[in-house]
Amino acid sequence: MANTPTSTTGGDSARLVRTPFIWTLYLVLGLFSFMLSMIGPMVPYLQDEFRMDYTLAGLHQSAFALGMVTMGFAGSSIIKRFGIVKSLWGGLLDMLAGLLLMVLAKGPAMTLGGVFVMSLGGLIVLATVQTALASNPAAHRGKLIMEANVMASVMTMLVPLVLLAGTRSVLGWRIVFPAMLVSVIAVASFGLPATRKHQNTRDEKADAGGGRLGAAYWRMWLVVFFGVSVEWAISFWCMTYLLGLPGNSRELAAAGTVLLGVSAVAGRFFSSRVSHRVPEDRLMLIMMAIVLVGFPLYWLRTSVPLAFLGLALCGFGSANFYPLGLSIALGHAPGNAAKASSLAPVASGSAIGLAPLLLGRLADATDMRLALWYIPIGVVIIFAITVIDKAMHGKKA
User: Fold this and answer.
1) pTM of structure
2) Most buried in the list 62, 73, 242, 397, measured by CB within 10 Å?
3) 14-208: CATH number
4) pLDDT (tens digit per residue) in 368-385
5) Taking the domains of the chain in order of start, what are their residue ranges?
């Protein structure tokens, strides 16, 4: 019997068992998320050391997004050629190489180059994890993806703690490299045997699949794009917007960003607990409603408690847009996991690269309060696509 995360009873209704291979996938996705999320908090350190302006500093996030989009079109071919195991660990090593280039940098050109190299390996890691999770029974796919993203959210919350430790040592922001190196070695110590065992019990090329992606997949690809754009519209400008609260307290604004991270973890954890009982499209609608309820409280900024409550609701709901959209998209691409998993990050990478930049431009032309109206508009767009997908899918069924 293959080393899948189900019991030996087989079939989609088999009990979910999280094997060492599954835990390895969770942790590797967490490492990817840590590296993606560290770029924003590192910007002030880069500005101080290399005298960067805001535009040049912001290009680091765009460089990561550009690498994800670029590699997204080749990711499925790489996974099919080298298999799950080599792609997973090869991608992680490439991320470490890019991070090393970044911490050895003497100027912005090398830091940007390091981020770009990191993103190329990061896309392979992300697509490989998603491909491996998609090869599991449909009844468990959504839960596995959601749990993996809970791990990603938890690892994201560690970024400010690691950077704080660096400021209290001689390493400074460059502490991220030894922290990641130790983490990768720790995960590999049990993850390599687990992935080798998986390789011996699976046909990895069959798991990768092949063929053409249909219109249903591309509808959900758009949901992923708009969902991630809404999530980043909330998170990227969160601290800046919270500085407009009564008192203009930087400490309160920082506390709000921590609250947003906690609410994202809570939202994904909640969905992972109920996803096997509530259909994914219905759960997506619930999360949209939560964001729409929270947005006015956050946007009005009438008081700190109400603004924080609204922000928490926005974080709770929007954190689920990507994993739910991805799971539904993979469900629309049976037998083509590698291609579907590689192209989904093209949507998320494009959103990460465009949303903060375009909202910033709009805020410069008007103000941030008006720019943030993209959040409910984006949710309405996601709602419309989801309803259309449900209607089209129902007709085919």
Assistant:
1) 0.79
2) 242
3) 1.20.1250.20
4) 889 899 999 999 999 999
5) 14-208, 211-397
